[in-house]
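Replying to the earlier thread about multi-chain prediction with a worked example.

Input:
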Amino acid sequence: MPLPAELHRELAALLGEGSGWLTDPGERLAYAYDNSRREAVPDAVALPVSRAQVQALVRACFAHRVPVVARGRGTNTTGASVPVQGGVVVSFERMDRIVEVRPGDRCAVVEPGVLNGDLQAALQAHDLFWPPDPTSAAFSTIGGNLACNAGGPRAVKYGASRDNVLALVAVTGTGELIHCGSATTKGATGYDLQRLLVGSEGTLALIVEATLRLTPLPPQRRAVRALYSDVASAAQAVARLMAQPVTPSMLEFMDADCVRLARDVGGADLPPDAGALLMIEADGDAQTLPHAVEALLRAAGGDGLVALDDAADDAAREQLWAARKALSPALRTLAPGKINEDVVVPVSRIPQLVDGVRALAQEFALPIVSFGHAGNGNLHVNILFDPADAAQAERAHAALARVFALTLQLGGTLSGEHGIGLAKREFMPHAIDPPTLTLMRGIKAVFDPAGILNPGKLLPRRDPPSTRSEHPGA
Amino acid sequence: MPLPAELHRELAALLGEGSGWLTDPGERLAYAYDNSRREAVPDAVALPVSRAQVQALVRACFAHRVPVVARGRGTNTTGASVPVQGGVVVSFERMDRIVEVRPGDRCAVVEPGVLNGDLQAALQAHDLFWPPDPTSAAFSTIGGNLACNAGGPRAVKYGASRDNVLALVAVTGTGELIHCGSATTKGATGYDLQRLLVGSEGTLALIVEATLRLTPLPPQRRAVRALYSDVASAAQAVARLMAQPVTPSMLEFMDADCVRLARDVGGADLPPDAGALLMIEADGDAQTLPHAVEALLRAAGGDGLVALDDAADDAAREQLWAARKALSPALRTLAPGKINEDVVVPVSRIPQLVDGVRALAQEFALPIVSFGHAGNGNLHVNILFDPADAAQAERAHAALARVFALTLQLGGTLSGEHGIGLAKREFMPHAIDPPTLTLMRGIKAVFDPAGILNPGKLLPRRDPPSTRSEHPGA
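Result:
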């Protein structure tokens, strides 16, 4: 379905044909996909340079009932930026200014297209940082980070995107400009709309400016690697680490399969009796850091501990992280395809999750490995399979449904930091009860009465195909 | 307007006449007011014991279009729990169970009627605490704390109520039970409704259960008192304190008038050249705390410092806090009435706020003093006057409007931790622009289509009387 000719003329005039308004098929193709490997070519791509342009283009699309899909750099893994119903992709690559860094107020004002990594570099001069550190940080945008509530390893101490935003300026589905929050760390003035917009995946409004909460950069960090005989012992250590006052700045976990892969395939130096691994980091200054590390070493010790290594310097720290870094390439040797989910459970339920996932791997005869952000109970469960083998692919998707069912049974939820997008929308009715889902639809309609903002994402279809029989336990 | 007879019969049968359903005028009077000194007698008081009772009573009130006003212990200062349109006050005093403390997950599940102080006492056995610490903590409820996004001094390090809630179960204005969030510190599964409900003052839903995020209790704390020649020097110290990695666990401020009052009226031991005071606390363990205090002492030093005292033990700490504690009784000697607001500005703008307030005190010929949570830019501006003197009372209210206008001009907002309630609703159009306010009204209608939940609070009247001429600068 091509765009209405009148809309095309209006937006070409507004944004500039061939510069801010792209309709060439080759150019549109570059905005068709994201890191989910899903793909749908938009009817046009808009590259606005100002909030006024964003408002004008959304108003025009609202008048013509044409979909508007906001896009950062397409690093998300859920299909959230794939324009499945066509329409206009709005890429914020030309709205990439750091408007202001205000060290005295511990905040920065940015346009949505700023790269996370570029912001961090600019903040370093002020000895500040913005906590969210997704793996994609070097090439993902602040707008994208906010859209999916991106986290990363540092979230265990410093929170995810939602915890680190003070105010947003955004454009709703009718083209209205709204101002949510203020550049203050406290606020009790009406409804908190800025945290509602974070994680809404472009379905409620397009963020055109964000005031981010910053944190002073600790001058030093130190890593500890703890190996345990089994997952249960490692999980107990996680609980001990999280129950004492020194919160680690990272607390990453690898299950037995991951440890084996990192050793046997990735060549990491790990003893054969290690059945689980924790990478623990602390940050602070020269005076306090040694004491913080001591506290973490004490908490890491206990039943099932096989080895405990404390990196004295940066080189040793890199060495300890080598096992974790060897994992991702090693995973690729197991199978050409993987489903990488980011379920989250209460921390105390990590052992049940890992055990349950291991049982599913047996039941479905597929390798499934778990690693990730243990301090938040946020594990990346990777189901490995060969996409060319239809039976394997089917088993992988059946196993995925069971992973979600298990997570929900354990009091967790579908996603900790990737979001829902296309990939998980049909699982939403398993996670969110009908009255709450109805409220979410109602809120969507308030922000976007014509349903033009990122249609087909986050919220499930109104009459989802019955999936109960496919997903027992859900 | 008495309640419809049918509704009365239904709710008396549901809740128990004279036990869970009170209609005696004397009993109703006890639920008519809050700490704002405003008063309106409800038509009945409901004391439910279960979420099922809350659902049934809201459904019945919805059917009859009768107002429902949730109430903790009425400690709020904004009139938010005063039933100005009559109807049913729902007091949660019989839903006061601590359902579960889960140390391994750093969370507690509670009913809304639990007192903040009782929860803290129960958590102490687990070496945990819930950060919000309003002055009223001993006798205010968790439900009330959540309703107004209560903060307190510790918020500078640990956040306010909204930052410390993981999940909520609530009853909407149609009597639907909704489940928002999960007992996990990360979540990217649909819209974040739990943080939207926090601070909504009972206008969107009635919270019937909360899963609170807990923090390990630091075993020790130490206080530093810093005196400065003037407010600007103190404010620069606040900026320095907040820019280094050791975040104080409290950072309280008193302006020159407060220092003078605490000394001359309260008898506090303060030198005559002190024009501003900071109380700074750090917490931690025996190993790290001395270094943290050193870092704070370093940051507190600088231009304009008059004296710096570091309390070596608990007795000395109490001594240092004495000046702050002498303030409130001393204030009462100045005038019988006060308007105590809790405006919040970006930290770097504290000097402009304090200077501006001092100018307003002169202009309106009334004592106005400022003190409060400097690390959050959240100052309690107290306008002192004699309510029996009509001219003074009028000047006080005119000055108040100008304090709000000044705060907004400085990029701040109306309330940091008290909320809006009745007291500030007509100032909302100055703080929130029309499209954003329209969205807030839309969200209210989604949760509460009949407008029965705490009507007349938080959102301004649809056609507010023009206040522009009264509040120049707004």
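Residues 1-217+421-462 of chain B form a domain with the Uridine Diphospho-n-acetylenolpyruvylglucosamine Reductase; domain 3 fold (CATH 3.30.465.10).

Feel free to reuse this layout for your own posts.
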